[in-house]
Each structure stands twice: as structure tokens, then as C-alpha cells.
């Protein structure tokens, strides 16, 4: 990415004129290099809206005039709509290579990582692997950083992972094939770090209807240390998830309380750079992640708001109840809730010690009383 100064021959030019000029210069270079007979060009201008000025024009000098005549967009600068429009044009314009040159005369006025991520994922997945070339160029006063243009460029460097989707099979306590030939676009770098895994945003390249994956943004959790132990590392998460899911299904419906739910998770078995990888894939839950309790007796502080308190107390009561439900064998803990109806957990089995630690710090609440489990605790 270049951030050009816009003073030219001692006079300042309007930045949007500089953008228009740069677009023409870029195309003029293509013309000078000798365009292929099938090369075409489309132009989108944008402010808070994106407008297609022309689509699929043969590359030639009249195209340069068409760019010059294009209305120069003033007002707000919002990248996402322009990227979404580019995705639509790419989807309707077959080509061997799609070269997107993103020129902006200012920083995005309403930046959002999640929206930009979705827009870039859409753009990248509209192309076949290796088909997209994305260039982003910012025009601003000297010292402009164009942080969001840089983020955009980074996000477009996602990696494609192609393989078979596996689901957890309770009967065999192992994985079984759910679907063949699934492609995921995994955005780098990771956005969160767990104790043993890194979390990446991802999207399925095939439409959700064609895969057994949930629709919308996904999260991929992969081993931090990409040794050959990734399958062994992932399996316990699936076994624990299944335990938590079956307990949640049996959890009694309490008046005026949500039921704990755990998002489904699948495993993508794929080969990357010669080694076999096992990537856990699940729906991405937007919102702040909250850790309600831990596997060594940790209990999160009680939130200030009524809704947060309700979810917190329900999570603690669910943990207590899961122990009663299992006949004192297991306790679902280390629950990570998100501000939606779903909760989910990562797990490191601390065994009896962890169960004892939970009950040491657990104070029964209204939900425990409603579930009539307050007097059901491990014998002292
Ligand atoms: Zn309790």
C-alpha cells in the first residue's frame, strides 16, 4: 500500500481528483503493456454508497475518458459497500484473474472489523483460489496511516483449506465423515488465543446450503503448535462438547430463563503444505466473550446489569446441575458465554479436584433453588 502525498508541482490538488488520476494512470499502464483481447475493466465510485459507473468495458483509450468523466464522489467514506459491489461484479464477470485496485482519498469513516472481514471474505470467496489480486492505495496528507486500508490488505491474504468435514461420533468416541470436498477461507492472522489453540475468522467457499456448515461467519480453531498431534489435541474438545450438549438438552426449562445451548462443531481434515491438519470449525458468535467459571474453581465477578447477572447465575446453576445430572461423575465448567442465547466451553479435565474446587467457590443461587439441587453437593 502506498500513501502518496497529494501536492503536485507545487500546488495542492483535490484528493478525489488525485484518486481519479491514479485510476487512469493505472489503466494507461495496462494499455501501454498491451492488454489481452479478453481484458475488461469496471469502475465503482463510492462514498457512503457504491455506484457502478461502468462494467466489463474493453480496455482502451475510450475507457480512460470514461474514468475521467466518472462523477467524483464526495461525502463520507465507507469501504464495505464498495467491496460488496466489487464482489457482485466479480461474480457476474468470468475471468482468469480479478484485479481489484481500491483507491481511497480518506480513511473509512465508520470502520468495523467484523463488517470489513465479511466484505473481504465475500470478495475473496467470489474468486477461485489465487484468482484475486487486491491492491489498496490511500491518498491523504503526509503522515496519513490508512490503518483500515492496511487491515483490508491483510485480511485479503487469507488461506484456503480444502478437505473433508468430520463430525463427532459418540458411539465410537471418534470422528466420522460428514462431507467431502469442503473449502474454507481462513483469514490470517488469528483474532484470539486460547490455552492450546488459536482462533481465526473463516468463511465457507461453497454456499452454506451446499455444505453441512452453519451459514454466516465461522471460526476455525487450530493448534498453536502445528505438530502431528493436532487430531489428539482436538478430540477431547469434541468429547466435552458432546457431554455439554447432551446435558443442555436434558436441562429443565426454567420460567423466564434461557436454556444453555452449545454451538455445533465439526473438524476439517485437510492437507496444508505437505502436512495433515485438523481444524475445528464452528459458527462465529459475535459479541464479547464472557468466561463465567473456570475448571479450577474460578467464578467470574457478578456483572452489574440484570441481564448479565441472570446469565451468570444460570451458567453457575447449569454447572452445579450438570454434576447432579451425571450422578456426580462430571461437571460442565469453564463455560464461555457470549451475549446471545448460546454458551459454549473449552475444557481441561481437572477431575475430582476440579469438581471439589467448583463446589468450594460455588454459592447456590435462585436457579439452583428452582432446580432443587441446593442440597445436592459432594459429601464433605
Ligand atoms: Zn448451586
From TrEMBL:
GO terms for molecular function: ATP binding; protein serine/threonine kinase activity. The keyword Cell division does not apply. It holds the Pfam family Alpha_kinase. InterPro entries: a-kinase_dom, Alpha-type_PK, Kinase-like_dom_sf, VWF_A, vWFA_dom_sf. It comes from the Eukaryota. Keywords: ATP-binding, Kinase, Nucleotide-binding, Serine/threonine-protein kinase, Transferase. The keyword Signal does not apply. Residues 160-376 form the Alpha-type protein kinase domain. PANTHER family: ALPHA-TYPE PROTEIN KINASE DOMAIN-CONTAINING PROTEIN (PTHR45992:SF11), EUKARYOTIC ELONGATION FACTOR 2 KINASE-RELATED (PTHR45992). This is Alpha-type protein kinase. The lineage of its organism: Eukaryota, Viridiplantae, Chlorophyta, core chlorophytes, Chlorophyceae.
Amino acid at each position: 500500500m502506498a500513501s502518496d502525498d497529494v501536492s503536485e508541482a507545487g500546488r495542492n490538488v483535490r484528493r478525489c481528483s488525485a484518486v481519479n488520476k491514479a485510476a487512469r494512470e493505472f489503466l494507461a499502464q495496462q494499455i501501454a503493456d498491451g492488454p489481452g483481447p479478453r481484458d475488461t475493466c469496471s469502475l465503482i465510485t463510492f462514498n457512503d454508497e457504491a455506484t457502478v459507473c461502468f462494467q466489463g468495458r474493453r480496455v482502451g483509450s475510450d475507457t480512460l475518458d470514461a474514468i475521467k468523466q466518472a462523477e467524483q464522489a464526495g461525502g463520507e467514506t465507507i469501504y464495505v459497500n464498495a467491496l460488496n459491489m466489487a464482489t457482485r461484479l466479480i461474480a457476474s464477470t468470468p475471468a482468469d484473474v480479478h484485479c481489484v485496485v481500491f483507491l481511497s482519498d480518506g480513511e473509512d469513516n465508520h470502520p468495523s472489523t467484523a463488517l470489513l472481514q465479511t466484505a473481504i471474505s465475500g470478495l475473496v470467496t467470489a474468486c477461485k483460489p489465487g484468482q484475486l489480486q487486491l491492491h489498496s492505495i490511500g491518498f491523504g496528507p503526509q503522515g496519513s496511516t490508512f490503518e483500515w486500508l492496511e487491515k483490508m490488505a491483510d485480511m485479503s491474504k487469507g488461506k484456503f483449506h480444502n478437505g473433508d468435514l468430520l463430525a463427532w461420533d459418540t458411539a465410537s468416541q471418534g470422528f466420522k465423515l460428514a462431507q467431502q470436498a469442503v473449502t474454507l477461507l481462513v483469514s490470517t492472522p488469528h483474532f484470539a488465543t486460547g490455552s492450546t489453540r488459536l482462533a481465526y475468522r473463516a468463511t465457507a467457499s461453497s454456499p452454506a446450503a451446499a455444505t453441512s456448515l452453519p451459514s454466516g461467519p465461522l471460526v476455525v480453531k487450530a493448534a498453536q503448535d502445528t505438530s502431528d498431534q493436532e487430531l489428539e489435541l482436538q478430540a477431547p474438545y469434541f468429547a466435552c462438547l458432546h457431554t455439554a450438549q447432551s446435558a443442555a438438552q436434558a436441562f429443565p426449562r426454567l420460567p423466564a430463563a434461557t436454556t444453555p445451548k452449545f454451538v455445533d462443531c465439526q473438524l476439517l481434515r485437510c492437507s496444508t503444505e505437505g502436512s495433515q491438519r485438523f481444524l475445528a470449525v464452528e459458527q462465529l458468535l459475535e459479541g464479547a466473550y464472557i468466561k463465567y467459571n473456570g475448571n479450577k474453581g474460578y467464578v467470574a465477578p457478578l456483572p452489574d446489569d440484570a441481564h448479565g447477572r441472570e446469565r451468570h447465575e444460570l451458567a453457575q446453576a447449569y454447572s452445579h446441575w450438570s454434576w447432579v445430572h451425571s450422578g456426580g461423575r462430571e461437571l460442565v465448567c469453564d463455560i464461555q458465554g457470549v451475549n446471545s442465547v448460546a454458551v459454549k466451553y473449552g475444557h481441561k479435565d481437572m477431575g475430582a479436584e476440579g469438581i471439589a474446587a467448583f463446589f468450594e467457590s460455588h454459592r447456590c443461587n435462585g436457579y439452583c433453588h428452582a432446580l432443587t439441587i441446593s442440597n445436592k453437593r459432594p459429601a464433605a
